């Protein structure tokens, strides 16, 4: 995907660098907060031959020694994003079942967590496809909302007092962070925004650094990362259990298919899906489907389509009205985000295949919670801040919209 953003957004894109990050650390007016993705944790862990938890603790220590105020992980924002997506799917399914006239507009629902895919859809397929894309924000942007519209107040800061950096496996996440849709006006009265008064305009995620850029930063400073001490983790927004382990929902590329499938089976058909999903591989390893039958009738039919060719085929079917799926997890990179273009490259003598196997093992090393609704941090955020999954407040804060874009190229940070 080549960029499809405005010139103002392009400026924001160019500012997202390690130099800018280091400069911000000496700012007297803003505190720097960092949010780390599980895929980047796995990338660092694999590169240095340590566990993801060790990588998280060591990176926390390193970043704090530079002056970072807090380091969170994005597992809880991913769980929020998954739960919102589940409720959104159930809502769309019921609407489609209740009114056949809207069926094509509501289903299939297409996952929205991959900005490479979203940008391509906006630029190439416009109104035929955009209504199908889930309105739920990606984990990165949910994290941005959490930090700038909730956690900042708990840190005793205002949204404009924070410079929020995420560490991600992907360059396209920089493009996502720079979208106008993720800038909001702060309520000058001191509330959490949306009072109608004009306050400073604040960006949810100010800068995205890739796993590879973090490695460059460590190497440019001559840091012996594996030998660093392990620092305590910040618990406010990190999914960490009492033993200090990070936990979250696993899944090939984010768990959207799996979590939505189990949730829809339970809520719509009263069925509990036990054990691993029985995925059927179709034309290649990056195109799979799964279905649920009740009384001999197929009631759910979901798919995962990764990589450009599979996405093109799927989009063609949707446009022709021939897509039988109700939900599709779409990711631009073959093998998903673990294989993102911003991940640390293979070591000398290591093949790409070897690396992805090590990354998968590291990723699976973390503690699993099967149902994101069981995450106590998520439960607390819904209770004290959002007012429940897919509530009016959650829909206003954790959902977004998409726009048809001109095919004019203003930036190109493609990795697929
Ligand atoms: Fe980025 Fe690739 Fe993941 Fe999409 S699938 S979010 S392009 S790493």
Automatic annotation (TrEMBL):
<keyword id="KW-0411">Iron-sulfur</keyword>
<comment type="similarity">
    <text>Belongs to the NARF family.</text>
</comment>
<feature type="domain" description="Iron hydrogenase small subunit">
    <location>
        <begin position="349"/>
        <end position="406"/>
    </location>
</feature>
<keyword id="KW-0408">Iron</keyword>
<protein>
    <submittedName>
        <fullName>Ferredoxin hydrogenase</fullName>
    </submittedName>
</protein>
<keyword id="KW-0479">Metal-binding</keyword>
<dbReference type="GO" id="GO:0051539">
    <property type="term" value="F:4 iron, 4 sulfur cluster binding"/>
</dbReference>
<keyword id="KW-0004">4Fe-4S</keyword>
<dbReference type="GO" id="GO:0046872">
    <property type="term" value="F:metal ion binding"/>
</dbReference>
């Amino acid at each position: 995907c080549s960029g499809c953003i405005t010139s103002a957004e392009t400026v924001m894109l160019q500012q997202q660098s390690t130099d800018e990050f280091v400069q911000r650390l000496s700012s007297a007016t803003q505190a720097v907060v960092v949010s780390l993705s599980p895929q980047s944790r796995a990338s660092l862990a694999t590169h240095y031959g340590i566990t993801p938890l060790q990588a998280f603790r060591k990176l926390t220590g390193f970043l704090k020694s530079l002056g970072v105020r807090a380091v969170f992980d994005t597992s809880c924002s991913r769980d929020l994003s998954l739960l919102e997506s589940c409720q959104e799917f159930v809502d769309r399914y019921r609407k489609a079942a209740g009114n056949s006239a809207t069926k094509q507009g509501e289903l299939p629902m297409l996952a929205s967590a991959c900005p490479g895919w979203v940008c391509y859809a906006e630029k190439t397929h416009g109104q035929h496809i955009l209504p199908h894309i889930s309105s739920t924000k990606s984990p990165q942007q949910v994290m941005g909302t959490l930090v700038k519209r909730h956690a900042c107040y708990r840190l005793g800061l205002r949204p404009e007092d924070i410079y929020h950096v995420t560490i991600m496996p992907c360059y396209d996440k920089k493009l996502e962070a720079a979208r106008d849709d993720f800038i909001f006006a702060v309520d000058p009265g001191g509330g959490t925004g949306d009072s109608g008064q004009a306050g400073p305009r604040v960006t949810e995620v100010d800068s995205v650094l890739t796993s590879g850029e973090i490695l460059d930063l460590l190497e440019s400073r001559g840091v012996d990362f594996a030998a660093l001490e392990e620092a305590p983790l910040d618990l406010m927004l990190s999914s960490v259990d009492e033993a200090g382990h990070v936990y979250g929902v696993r899944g090939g590329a984010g768990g959207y298919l799996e979590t939505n499938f189990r949730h829809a089976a339970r809520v719509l058909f009263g069925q509990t899906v036990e054990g691993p999903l029985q995925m059927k591989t179709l034309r290649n390893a990056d195109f799979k489907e799964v279905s649920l039958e009740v009384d001999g009738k197929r009631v759910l039919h979901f798919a995962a389509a990764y990589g450009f060719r599979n996405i093109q085929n799927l989009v063609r079917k949707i446009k022709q009205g021939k897509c039988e799926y109700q939900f599709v997890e779409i990711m631009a990179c073959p093998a998903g985000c673990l294989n993102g273009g911003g991940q640390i490259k293979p070591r000398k003598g290591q093949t790409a295949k070897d690396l992805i196997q090590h990354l998968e093992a590291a990723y699976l090393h973390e503690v699993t919670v099967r149902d994101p609704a069981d995450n106590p941090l998520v439960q607390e955020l819904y209770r004290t801040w959002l007012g429940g999954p897919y509530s009016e407040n959650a829909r206003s804060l954790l959902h977004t919209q998409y726009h048809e874009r001109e095919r004019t190229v203003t930036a190109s940070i493609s990795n697929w």
